[in-house]
Amino acid sequence: MSTFWIGTGWKMNKTVAETRRYIADLKARLPDEAGADCALFIIPPFTALAAAREAIGAAPVLLGAQNMHWAEAGAYTGEISASMLEEFRIDLVELGHSERREYFGETDATINLKVKAALRHGLRPLVCVGDSAEERAAGASAAAVVRQVRLAFAGLTRAEIGRSLVAYEPVWAIGESGMPATPDEAGAVHVALHDALKELGAPSVPVLYGGSVNLENAAALAAEPAIDGLFVGRAAWSAEGLVSLVSRA
Ligand code: PEP
């Protein structure tokens, strides 16, 4: 049985104290068999990474960061490098979330630089791609995200791409105003993403779905054969929420 991924990005939420409480609660609620066929991950803000690493201890919970810069060091005020993230022994780094693309000017080109830098440092990129409402209305969802994936991995070897994760996060589905993709709709886009990854020589890259995942729709989404995991925002911002989703998936 292949690993099913379930994780949550916290965006600009949770202080150090809240992070410690979340992880303590998560550890208390994790079933004994957690980690057997499910890879569980949390992505706190940078400021809580040290506390999160310490609080996780030996629990089967992977730790991620929400972003990084591609340069090794330098005059980039406010940015964080891969070496800085390595100090927290993070397991993955989220790159190209649609909020970063929309509010912070990230482009396919800068995401590609970040993916390369992450891999150089042995960090596993979680590359987020997503179609807009307009692209969806035009029937161009799969084409849009396949293009983003090709650009994110441009110039990388098969082996490098193979160390990555991809998250399909429709822009129209994430956050308060979003509505989830149906399992059929998400499944079809995932098939296209898997085909593109196969063409790039990396057929085993897991593709996660994210966008208004909740307790009602998690089981049906997880049952789609092309969906290898769930990347969750709001519904997993409590440890109870995350563990409940694990039990549904
Ligand atoms: C997200 O923003 O990446 C996300 C998946 O959010 P939500 O689950 O809250 O829609």
From TrEMBL:
<comment type="pathway">
    <text>Carbohydrate biosynthesis; gluconeogenesis.</text>
</comment>
<comment type="similarity">
    <text>Belongs to the triosephosphate isomerase family.</text>
</comment>
<keyword id="KW-0324">Glycolysis</keyword>
<dbReference type="GO" id="GO:0005829">
    <property type="term" value="C:cytosol"/>
</dbReference>
<dbReference type="GO" id="GO:0046166">
    <property type="term" value="P:glyceraldehyde-3-phosphate biosynthetic process"/>
</dbReference>
<dbReference type="InterPro" id="IPR013785">
    <property type="entry name" value="Aldolase_TIM"/>
</dbReference>
<feature type="active site" description="Electrophile">
    <location>
        <position position="97"/>
    </location>
</feature>
<keyword id="KW-0963">Cytoplasm</keyword>
<comment type="subunit">
    <text>Homodimer.</text>
</comment>
<protein>
    <recommendedName>
        <fullName>Triosephosphate isomerase</fullName>
        <ecNumber>5.3.1.1</ecNumber>
    </recommendedName>
</protein>
<dbReference type="GO" id="GO:0006094">
    <property type="term" value="P:gluconeogenesis"/>
</dbReference>
<dbReference type="InterPro" id="IPR000652">
    <property type="entry name" value="Triosephosphate_isomerase"/>
</dbReference>
<feature type="binding site">
    <location>
        <position position="212"/>
    </location>
    <ligand>
        <name>substrate</name>
    </ligand>
</feature>
<dbReference type="InterPro" id="IPR022896">
    <property type="entry name" value="TrioseP_Isoase_bac/euk"/>
</dbReference>
<comment type="pathway">
    <text>Carbohydrate degradation; glycolysis; D-glyceraldehyde 3-phosphate from glycerone phosphate: step 1/1.</text>
</comment>
<keyword id="KW-0413">Isomerase</keyword>
<dbReference type="GO" id="GO:0019563">
    <property type="term" value="P:glycerol catabolic process"/>
</dbReference>
<keyword id="KW-0312">Gluconeogenesis</keyword>
<dbReference type="InterPro" id="IPR035990">
    <property type="entry name" value="TIM_sf"/>
</dbReference>
<dbReference type="Pfam" id="PF00121">
    <property type="entry name" value="TIM"/>
</dbReference>
<comment type="function">
    <text>Involved in the gluconeogenesis. Catalyzes stereospecifically the conversion of dihydroxyacetone phosphate (DHAP) to D-glyceraldehyde-3-phosphate (G3P).</text>
</comment>
<feature type="binding site">
    <location>
        <position position="175"/>
    </location>
    <ligand>
        <name>substrate</name>
    </ligand>
</feature>
<feature type="active site" description="Proton acceptor">
    <location>
        <position position="169"/>
    </location>
</feature>
<dbReference type="GO" id="GO:0006096">
    <property type="term" value="P:glycolytic process"/>
</dbReference>
<dbReference type="GO" id="GO:0004807">
    <property type="term" value="F:triose-phosphate isomerase activity"/>
</dbReference>
